[in-house]
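pasting for the record
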Amino acid sequence: MPIFVYNSLTRKKEEFIPLKPPKVNIYTCGVTVYDESHIGHARSLYIFDVIRRYLKYRRFKVRFVRNITDIDDKIINRARELKIDWKELVKKYIARYYQDLKILGIQKGDFEPRATANIREMIKHILGLMKKGYAYVTDSGVYFNVRKFKDYGKLSGQGIDQMQSGARIEPDENKTDPLDFALWKKSKPDEPSWNSPWGRGRPGWHIECSAMSQKFLKTETLDMHAGGRDLIFPHHENEIAQAEALTGKVFARYWIHHGLLTINGQKMAKSLGNFVTIKDFMEKYKNADLLKMFFLSAHYAHPMDYTDEKIEEAKKALERILILMDKAEKMAARRKPRLGSREFKEIEQIKAKFIEVMDDDFNTPEALAVIFELVNTANKNIEDLNFILCAKNTLKELLDILGVALKIEEKTSAVTDEEIQTMILEREEARRQKNYKLADKIRKKLESSGIILEDETGSTHWRRKL
């Protein structure tokens, strides 16, 4: 079955056909390391991790590169603000970024190149553009001549005049055109700098992605380039111009862009007091799966609004899965399944439906609906141990594709397992004697300690609250 993706370049859904199947080359724009990563970064990191996981599940050999911008105006300004060396700042936040990846359970890229480690490739790229007449030198650096590249604007679908009115202009009175963007910036005396044919300086923002993506993916044409919708213009538009002007080849065949994240209906900003870092989220909720369940509830291309209420909804959804898993494990501990492995047609059909919706532009909300269809089906067949174990294994397989680990942080409880079992026996005795008031009191006491009782025919089971 083919996979279809929405291509921002053509503005339509297309069959995904890599240049050299089953190999797939993916490049995604990573973080700029001047501050803590927030949950907007988490959505970007997670979405493209899911796409990578799913392509691997569908037997593609994925080569995945995600850059780290470690030199930028934001980095220089933040280091000045904190009165520390920019290298110290970068070192701190690269370490924090990798800690965030670990606690979120998101895989590292096959390569995560740093801009400062690839200056030579960027200079070579700029020299190539100058040789072809696409770049020129000013007193402040080297600029790309936008109007010389005839396809400029094809990704964002804007004309030159539209762009000029809404562009983030880099001021330089010597530029040929206000839209021309910096390939190389001559550094001021107190700024980080590297040697170049144009004197000491540093790369512009856009050139790093064009140079590093082609270097580490070992190709002039990427299969897939991914990033946030806010990067379409000017960043991705400029990447295309730089790359295609040099090589004369299509830079990326498929462009995938995710929607942006707001907080309680507002853009995330420190000034509004609604800036939620990944660290903040984990300190509050302790479980990365909750954030993932929230992200999965909307299509990657759509905007999302983060609220505490939505995380509570995600918690309830995750609990439904965990309750079934817990039941399956406890049933397996008490009873032996019938001999011989069996395939259940109903479960196989649900699994096929999961693949079908994920093949349709990685439709995670539909995939999540399919997962809960499997949960409901398993609960209807709860007495059939073989069915339940098959459903459990299938659930784990599908959730692993989505990077949902089903890990629960062990909480310290006021009651031990032995005390819980003793209280359950006391409650059962109270119910036998029709002392329902006492039975209810025991249940509430356990619930206040985070223990949930579930009565089934002839027995009572318990689980710890998420």
